[in-house]
Amino acid sequence: MKVRILILALFAVLLAGCVQTSQRAPSTRSPKAVKVRKFTELTGTRWTLSVLDGQAIVPSSTGWATPGIDFADDGQSASGFSGVNRFGGRYIQDGAALTFGPLAMTRRAGPPDLMETERRFTRVLSGATGWRQRGADIELIAAKQVGAVLTPLAVKK
User: Fold this and answer.
1) What's residue 156's pLDDT?
2) How many helices (H) and strands (E) does the chain have?
3) CA dist., res. 70 & res. 63, Å (int)
4) Is 86 helix (H, G, I), strand (E, B) or coil?
5) Which domains does the chain possess?
6) Angle at CA of residue 24, ends 18 and 27, nearest 5°
7) Which residues lie across from 134 on neighbouring strands?
């Protein structure tokens, strides 16, 4: 009988400890502060497409790469992958203004859903008028709204 009471008392203490832990106030100290790089230029970073026309881009389960763009260090040319095909062309960035010249593309066919993503992504690039940083990501502005969100994949500098 004494053993049962001892076990129940021990269980009650453990249970009380769990309840007490879950009701603690959140800590004001963060474990590690994440430093977000402030981008003034788009060069020096490889960007991957994370949101297009308000929809999250999910990596392909069939092995196709995620669309993205790389702004060359010359500050004038960009190249990337649009879903099925590779592209390249000129761009002009002046502060928050951003426009792309004609984009040259390969002409490979692919799955219909990826071809649709490619069509929409190249439409955003061709219609881009600006960009802005939001956290670590950048947003491409086309038709006065966010057309695409790009996430830094690799910082080269």
Assistant:
1) 62
2) 2, 9
3) 20
4) strand
5) 45-155 (2.40.128.270)
6) 130
7) 137
